[in-house]
Amino acid sequence: MPVLRATFATLLLTLSLATGSAFAGDALPVAPAQLDAAYWIAKLPDAERVILDAGAIAARNAALPKLEPSWHDLAALPASLDRDELRAMIEQRSAPPTRTLYAEDGHALTPDEIAALRDALALDAIPDRTGVNFALVVHRASLRTFPTMQHVFSKPGDVDIDRFQESALFPGTPVAVLHAGRDGRWRFVVAPNYAAWIAADALAEGTRDQVLGYATRQPQLVITGDDVRTAFDPSRPALSQLPLDMGVHLPLLADWPRDEAVSGQAAYAAWVVQLPKRDANGRLQLVPALIPRGSDVRVGDLALSRANLLRQAFKLLGERYGWGHDYDGRDCSGFLSDVFATFGVRMPRNTGDQARSSVFAHQSFDDTASRADRMRAVAALQVGDLVYIPGHVLMVVGFEHGEPWVIHDVQGVSVREGGTLRRIPLNGVSVTPLLPLQFDAGHDYLARMTSIVHPLAPLPTGAH
């Protein structure tokens, strides 16, 4: 059983004094060694053993569109949608704000401004039936609540979380294109894991077969690093030094002739991948591009061992927090989705869906769960397990003196210091102990824990 909280605090303070703390102050001390994946891997028996093989991952992924309402099977979409169905889909995402939101200059959005956002949806322009078109994303682009890049916030001066930012899509992501905004510069799209507005110039439209075939083409080069870019290409600016996020999968042109250059650069010292490109008319072209051989990439998905999972997560340590993949970063659920994508594991986009999804083995907690039940569940956590509280998720990296430690992408955490609550602004991917974290003045994370998910377990028995 975990040691008492007071004992744990004493141990943390001792660790801080003995090794030096990566934190300012003693409220949440973290030793420098604990910021290295190797530290936690060394604690694991059989760390390199594959926990979930490719077949088990494929089976769970195949069940995802059948069992998870937030996941969209693009191949199952009909050729067209009727007006009411499409309108309901857009209005579900682009509902009028129910609380006051503030612009960057600090003023509260006025009723006229909100009406203008609603008008930009062009709902009156939806025909009786709308054909479903398809496209590939050509560069990292935001998914928005409304067809605008206007930034809005919950309170004046708090500019970290843009409440119109939903998520982001990456090069090569297939989408169904359903509707155009009033000004023609935005499209309402359905991606496998989300539906929202994206800038039209981030899309290259092609046929259904072109777009859906692209994502399944083999072999694939998997982006496993935190900062991978295509090679500089002076003749094709759109493909030059294109950022590729962790977890992106691209078709690999493995049979490309070694002596055939790409944009004047020899191909033998690089990976030749196929990238989507948007022509002058917005149509899809599939073209070769180079990724330097020295990049952090690999052919095919990583083997899902606990050691590899820790290595991948720690590659993003210290990255700035970005709500909805904003600021070229990630939020808590996006961080884990991108890490697990390097193993071929597909996950719902948001924490609530991840925590409840029936494709993952999980244990749920409600208000009837006792403190003792919660402590027993925490004591049984394993490396790679995911702990959910309302609006947040953390991944277990190991134990110190019987207490769990986690990695998570977080704006900030609160801890109790004497009789007061202290807020520590982390604003990035961070390693912390779990149990000292406070949800609010009256509850710690343990008391508000809603779910423990076991993503290294196969599809639960009976789920199909």
TrEMBL record:
GO terms assigned for molecular function: cysteine-type peptidase activity
InterPro entries: NLP_P60_dom, Papain-like_cys_pep_sf, SH3b1_dom
Keyword vocabulary terms for this entry: Hydrolase, Protease, Signal, Thiol protease
Sequence ranges assigned to domain NlpC/P60 in this UniProt record: 303-457
Name assigned to this protein: NlpC-P60 family protein
Domain of life: Bacteria
Annotated signal peptide: 1-24
Similarity annotation: Belongs to the peptidase C40 family.
SUPFAM superfamilies (alphabetical): Cysteine proteinases
GO biological process per UniProt: proteolysis
Annotated source species: Pseudoluteimonas lycopersici
